[in-house]
Amino acid sequence: MTEIPTRAARPAAITATGLRKSYGDKTVLDGVDLHVPAGTIFSLLGPNGAGKTTTVQILSTLTGADAGQVRIAGHDLATSPDAVRSAIGVTGQFSAVDKLLTAEENLRLMADLRHLGKARGRRRTAELLEAFDLADVARKVSMTFSGGMLRRLDLAMTLMGGPQIIFLDEPTTGLDPRSRRAMWQIIRDLVAEDGVTIFLTTQYLAEADQLADRIAVLDGGRLVAEGTAHELKRLVPGGHIRLEFTDPAAFERAARTLGEVSRDEDTLTLRVPSDGGVRSLRSLMDRLDAQAIEVAGLTVHTPDLDDVFLALTGQTVPTQTPTQNQAQKESVR
Fold it and tell me: Coil, strand, or helix at residue 180?
């Protein structure tokens, strides 16, 4: 795995060491190590079949590992699975909302399953309906809801038990851009205001880029890289700064000053290799200023997560097609 320095240590919400899982002669996870600090958003990326769903199923107690040690919220997964279940919530790719019930009835059902008691359950239901902007439709049957409303209700149901850690498996699949952005803000608020830890799997790379404090890339059952979005992007060559000129003389002087650059004589532009960082940009501008060279325009181009995904896995971004059968739609609440 590509090693990238970690930030200052925080208490761990999730740790896994040597996680292994096989089905017959097919190895799905081959020695995966994870460290997810509390109060952060951790995103697991990978192509279809990489082992993302299996990882979530193991960490959320839905299936057992063949080998490895896991601690969730301080509890050993193998010896204290009930304690782990009490500390976590799971919102799966497929909604667990009962569409024949109202939003209020779905939440009260979760309150009963969590043994909150009648008064506390009603109070918590009202709080969640308000927090997720569902109070006005609380008594409407859920089958009339839009996709975004269903996802909000699904996440609200997950929060009924006050989990410390939430596993979000493809949380915005099928949502329109506006609903997706609204869900992103809800996820950010859960972390910033409530201190919840989010373990996110997604195939929308922009989602991981927007949300995740750290991102791990899983391929062939192994972690091949981990770091912040910026750190991962710097692993991929191709970053550059594009300089635009209106004066041919300034264009030529800049080309001589900067050395090895790509030239476009027709548009009077130079392409200078760069990691896109502030330090390299400042150095470039200092060199141009020292020669009194005036630049008409400047654009920084850095590789995005699509480029990272392709470089690390050899595959393009996977398509958004459901791959799990009905039996895998269950969620631990």
Answer: helix
Task: List Cβ neighbours of 306 (8 Å cut-off, separation of 6 or more).
Answer: 205, 316, 317
Rounded Cα distance, 180 and 192, in Å: 18
Q: How far apart are CA 206 and CA 15, in angstroms?
A: 26
**3-state secondary structure (DSSP) of residue 300:** strand
Domains of the chain in sequence order: 12-98+160-234+310-324 (3.40.50.300), 240-302 (3.30.70)
Residue 293 is encoded by which pair of tokens?
Answer: 């060279």
* 76/106 Cα distance (integer angstroms): 31
Token pair listed for 93 = 């790719």
| CA distance linking residue 136 with residue 116, whole number of Å | 24
The model's pLDDT over 216-270, given as tens digits with 9 standing for 90+, comes to: 999 999 999 999 998 898 888 778 899 999 999 999 999 999 988 999 999 999 9
